[in-house]
Structure formats: C-alpha cells, structure tokens
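Key idea: predict the complex, not the pieces.
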Amino acid sequence: MSRYTSVTPDDLRAMLAEIGVGSVDDLFAAVPAGLRLDRPLDLPAGMAEQEVYGHLRDLAARNVSAEDEISFLGAGMYDTYVPALIDSILQRSEFLTPYTPYQPEISQGGLQVMFEYQTAISELTGLPVSNASLYEGPSAVGSAAYLAKLANGRPEVLVSRGVHPHSRGTLRTLAPGYGQRVVEVPLGDGVTDAAELAARVGPDTAAVVLQQPNFLGAVEDVEPLAEAAHAHGALVVCACDPVPLAILRPPGEVGVDVAVGEGQTLGNRLDYGGPSFGFLAATEAHIRRMPGRIAGETRDLDGRRGFVLTLQTREQHIRREKATHNICTAQVLNALAGVIYLSWLGKRGIVELAELLLRRADYARRALTALPGVRPLHEQPVVREFALALDAPVGAVIERCAAEGVCPGHPLGGDYPEHPDGLLVAVTERRTRADIDRLADALGRAVAAERDPALAGARA
Amino acid sequence: MSAPAVQTPQQREEVLTIWQRSRPGRRAFTAPGAGVPERPIDELLPARLRREAPAELPEVSEPEIVRHYNRLSKRNFDLDTGFYPLGSCTMKHNPKLHERVAALPGHARLHPLQHPRRAQGALELMWRLERALAEVAGLPHVSLQPSAGSHGELAGVLLTRAYHADRGDERTTVLTPDTAHGTNPATVTMAGYEVVKVGTAPDGGVDLDDLRRKADERTACLMLTNPNTLGLFDPNIEEIARIVHDAGATLYYDGANLNAIMGVTRPGDMGFDIVHFNLHKSFTQPHGGGGPGAGPIAVSDRIEPYLMVPRVVRREDGDGGAEYDLDADRPKSIGRLRGFQGNYGVFVRSYAYIRSLGAEGLREASEVAVLNANYLLALLRRPGVGEHLPPAFGERCMHEFVLSGAPMKRELGIRTVDLAKRLLDFGYHPPTVYFPLLVEEALLVEPTETETRETLEAFADAVAAILAEAAEDPEVARNAPYTTPARRLDEAAAARNPVVRQPLPA
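Result:
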C-alpha cells in the first residue's frame, strides 16, 4: 500500500470476492501474456515525502534563479512580483483541484472566474470577446492564425520579424498542417517595415501577425500596418504584452481583429517557462470560430444569475472533426491568477505600474547606452524592454556579468543573425535603480574587458 | 417535489462580479517608487501611441479581493472535498508535497532563457522525467514540450506528417475509432488530414474487418486509446498494430487512459510509435478547474528525428558526472509547438510523484485503479441498480467502465443527466455523461486508485437510493439538484444570446 492508496489485505479479499475473481492479476486477463511486462519498471524505488522534498530542493539549488542574481532577462517572460494574495487563493482546493466545469451547478466559482477573466482581457485589449485562456503566448499566436484560416481560407500568413521567434517558430510548425505558408516581413529601425508589409500583403494573405511591443522592445505603430492588411481583406493578429497595454492604444482601437498574448506577467511565476496562460480576444464577428472554453451568463431554474460554458458547439467534445480547435485542457488556474492580479492592480494601479516600467526602462536604456562600446539597436519608444548592440562578443560579456551576479539580458544573435552581438534587456518593477546601476557597472566592465585585446576571451 | 424552501448560503447570496464590487478610488496595489528621474511621459512615449481612456479594471481593496474569491471558491465542488469519478479524467489525489516543491524559488523563479549552464537542476529534472516516461511507455525518446493531451496529439500527428513527407509518401487520412475522445478527430483536422472512422466490434474492441477495409495507402495513422474509452483493453492490439504497420501508417497512443496499465504493459511493446501522456491525469498535476496540464510524448526510433526542438541532452563529463543542455540544432525537427521548454512547473510535480511512488508504486496505482473500478462495477451490478444501469460491455473493466442508462430512462423515466444532477445533491461529482457516443445514455465511471472502499460503497448506495427514489417519483431527479450553489442552468439561452463579459456602465 502506497501512501496515496488505502486497500488493506482485508479490503482486497472482500473486493476480489465481490468482483468474483481470485486475484488482481485476473483483472488484467485481457492483456495478452506476451505483452505483460515481466519485470518491474526500471525506475528508482519510491521515497519518503521528506526524501522527495530533499531531492527536489537539491535540484532547485542547482539553478540560478531570479532569487539568486540580478536578472534582466525577459524576451517573453518577466520576473514580476506576484502578490501574496494570489498564492493564498490559488492554493485553495476549490480552485486547485476541480476539473473543467462540465457540471455548472457545482462549478459556479470557476465559471464566474472565467467570466471575470474574459471581462478583464476584453477591457485590456479593447475587443469585445475573450475566451477563457489558451496554453501560453506563442501557441496562442498559432491558434489565431488558424482562426484566420477558418475565417477566410486564404493560404498565407504574413508575420513580422518583430514577432517573438518562438511564436514564428510555432507558426512554421503548425501552418503546413492546415495548409498555410508563413512569410516574414522584415524590420526597419527596430519596427515592422510598413513599405515591405504593403508590398507583400495581397489577396492570398489570411492574416498579418504583429507584436506589441515587438520582440526588440519597440512600440509598433499598429494602425497604419492594420490598414494595409485590411485593404486586402486580411485579418490583423497582434500578440500583446498585457501590462504595457495599460498605456498603449488598445488593439481594438487600432484595427486589430484578434489580440493574443502571453499572460505570465499577470500574476504568474516564471516556472522556467510555464505553466502560464495565453489569452485570445477578438471582434464579435469571430466569436463562433474562437478556440477554447468560453463562459457565458445565464439563469438557473429559480431565475438566479449563473454561468455556464457556452458556444460549446465550437468544441472538440461536441463537434469532433468539425471543431474550431482541438484544445480541451487550457490554463484556467493561471488565468485565475491573471484576473486576481488585474483586480489587485486595479484601474489606476496598472497605469502606475506601466509608467514605472516606462521610466525605469528609459533610465536603464540611457545608462547603458552611455557606456563605451554599447549602442542602442534602435531608437524607437519602448516600455519595459530594449535592445542594445555591443561592440564586444555578447556571449563572453554575459559570462563576465554572470560572474558578478548580474544577468544582463538575452543574446539576440541566435534568432537575429543580423545582430550578432545584440542584447535584449528587460526591466521589471523588481529591478530597482540600484540594480540598474549595478548592471551598468558590470556591463561597462565586461564590454571594456572584451574590447581590451589583452583581456578579451580570458575568464572573467 | 418542489425546491426546498430554504436556500443554501451560496444560493442566498447575490451573484456579483468583482466589477460590481468596484468603487472609484479604492485600490489594493501600492506602486514602489520609480527611484529614477521623472521625465515627462510625452518624451518617453508619443501621445499618438498612447491609450486615452484607461482600461476599466476593478477598483477594490485587498480584503475585498480576498473575500470575493474565497466566496467564489465556495461555489465550486472539488476533489479535496469529495469523490470525483469523472470518466476519462483520472481525478486522483493531488499530493500536497507537489505544491511545496514546485514553489521552491530555484524552480519557480527560474527564467526560461537562463543559460543552460545555470539551469542544470531544471534540465536534469526534465531529463530524468523524460527517462521515467520513456520507461513507462516502452518507447525510447521523449519530448516534454506539449502543454496538454490535445497538444501532444497535435504533435503526434504533425510528427506522422513529417515522417511520411520525409519518405516522399503523401498520405491523406487518419483513422480514429468511433469511441475516440473528441480531441482525436479535432486534432486530425487541425493537422490537415481527413478523419476516417473505424467501427467498434460487439465486444467493444476495434472492428478488425472494418480496420482492414480502411487501412490503406492513404492512411497516415491510427489514433487509439488502449484501454479504450469503454474501459476495455483491446486484446487484438497486436493484430491491430500489424494491420496499421502493414499499411505503412503509424500507430498513435492516446494516453488519457494510461492510468490502467502503468508497469503492467507498455504502449511501445504493443507496437505504438507515438504516445502522449496526460501529466494532469496519470501523473497527478492538479486540474486547476481546466488546466494547467502537460502532454509529453514518447516516440520510437523512426519518429525521433522529427521531434520538437529544443531537446534536453545529457553529456557525460568523463568524471562520472554529466552536463545537461538544450539542443535546437536538429534539421529534421518539426520545430516548436509553443514557447520555451514547456510547463516546467507541471514537470516538477509529476517528477515528484514518480519519485514518491517508484516502480512498485506506479504499478500499484494502476492495479488499485483497476481493482477499485471493478469493485465499483460489481457493486453497481447488484439488484436495484444493475437492471436499470447495466454495464455497456461485459462484467469486467480496466480503470473505468461504461454503464447504459437506457433501461433507466425507459423504466424509471429519468435520464442519465437526471441521475447526474441528483448525485450532486448527494455530494458527488457525477461520472462523465453521454460519452462515449455509441452507448445510449452513457455514464463513464472512473473511481481512481486513491479512493477508499468505503467511498466506493457509499457512492453505489447513493446511486441505488436515487434509482429507488425515481421509482417512486421521477420528478425528484428530473428537477435536481436542489442543494447546490446554482440549480439547473439554461445553457440554450446562454448560447442563443451570448453574454461573455460583465457589461459596464458607459
């Protein structure tokens, strides 16, 4: 008997007798003898709870987390502060342990959370309908492109090189399956090149995919790009960082048809990349082809207000091969963190937070670009993140900074060969002025050392 | 019977959203000081790019937020409170240790783009979890990347497409049994294939003749669950694999029902090429009211070149130690299906579970899951229940079983939905209803291994009591539930005129 089961020898005898078999083995009679595993699984023996804790703690100790260094890593996920009330509410069994709310009478809490979450996403994006969450950011971009394919059936999706490399990668993986080709639109001075976009968009374009702010941190002027897409009947999909949306023109006001994004910064931990949640909101026209769960308001038998999963005829469990998407399990608990976080920030707090990011990012950008050998990669406005070009090998610079307890950011060369020594630096509300000053010191020393022929390449 | 005059506290309370509790000027958040020189916003962000009206988020204090969501939580039923025999969903206990270890800052605050040299613990954990899942599946290669079962299915079908394409073999159809989970056919469509349905034989297994007729040079893949959604292990699985492989197709294992067979038999040994795991089912990630989960896949050697990037790799360092890394340089890979490395927080929990149970514990989990299901099935076959809710296929099952409510509907005048709703008043989450589709008035029951004998007996008694009650007066069940936070809800009205967000005053 393991600690999670409770069949005593007496239970076993009584249960087998009731079933009418002699042993547990008899219950597996349908498994052909040749397919029975004739040995134990080759796995370590089970451990006591405290031993498992110790092992997982030891593994954790071999990671350098944002708890251990001053980190300016971003590029899609950010070391934001998660308020204590989120931990407390998310650990409630009533939110943590139920399944998808197939029985609405006993799932009103979860369904109302979805409804409130949808309201929050709708407000942030300026679009009327939101679903109840998707897996995470880049796959949400893929889901939006699939929605465009369902909407107009066209064979091509145009994606800006300012869109996260993981989102572009996901599109390239998924699109051939449902018969779309993916064509990239280059950047000019850090933002989507409007002339290049206008030259490429046409009657074959199902959707134009943008990101706001884009991967290099630059705020895109979305409206003219959206107009160019709409002129050819293409949909506009925009992947948005949700907190900057507090101060940027909302997607719904600048011609975006489908806004998606990564929700991690809304009250979710880094967790080495997940679980977080993806969001997807759209214009009214697309509600019946949206992917995923949607909660809707209704009344119960006694006339009281209540909530249900609605428009389920879009979904796989009803429509099977004719469903608008295959998603079943989404990220409802993470979306709960999202709506609690947005309530915690509130109408004014989210603007204050976004402006704080704006100011600290500006301070950091000025401090770093004042260093010898460090230039801005573009001059566009930014909110929380900006790109630099180093006159030194970025990998070696990062290692020197790491040795001083500072992670200066994410190297761009892997995804942007045109910027081999590019560095993407993210600022969050957890990075104080003192942290930024320490980054400037470390980065300045590291770049100087790598530019000094006598020191370059030597271990920091 | 009319509704009881007294409402429960959860019913009495007016249903208000957090927006309706908002009052101008209230707040929970205090911004830290910027600590940097205050430049005018106009200089940082031109006005034409800026939002004019703020997003209408709620204005509430911390105590109001806590109370609001705690009250909402009390309007949910959950696994920690009661029995949840939801078929196909494997609602087993979620150990509390897992929440503690997942929250360790070394895991929880690790950035996904941290250099692999400084994420060795995370990569080792992923590598070890991959090895454990490979052993359970009986297939050598694992990718943890997919975020849910259906995401793993999509990976599997795209891998199949890449495998055939690489051999210059254009195939157009995917076979799915008519008993399949809805995600299977939906996935097939998203991956650009056409669904061809395979019938079910009278014994509940795949109809072999139908399969032989339909498996041909157009067939890319057969997607199969074994045990299937009827809770039956298909004893012809070796023959099925032979037919599919002879047609040149791949065999895909939907791992939703893996909880029946861990350590007993392995999909790889049965002949499957690709397997997905639902870590939120067999490996006990809490369901969270609809996620998060994770849907890793295991594959055979011939599928391995196409696996998603990045892969976790281990390199021996020569001193008995090893270094772990991420490898994205794989020319035949289908690419990536999402950002970063997957739902790592889920991996931590499932890895902790596997280390707690070990080989013996995993096998025991499956054995007790099957024992519990058969015991509950036996109790429900007793007179009083068995004649109204007979098993749809045979008297034995694996980890779950299907009952048909057809006699109940005919003789007692209540449908499966009525039984399900009345179970709510007895404090149970009902089984899955109206699935699988080929059983009339179906009820799919999966008790899991973490339930006690007494719980199973009490549940069987409750079903018997409801049926006895229905024999007296079917109206009681037809109007149930009575004691829940809400009574039956008008789903048709919700779909006719969708209200999907809180309307706000202009």
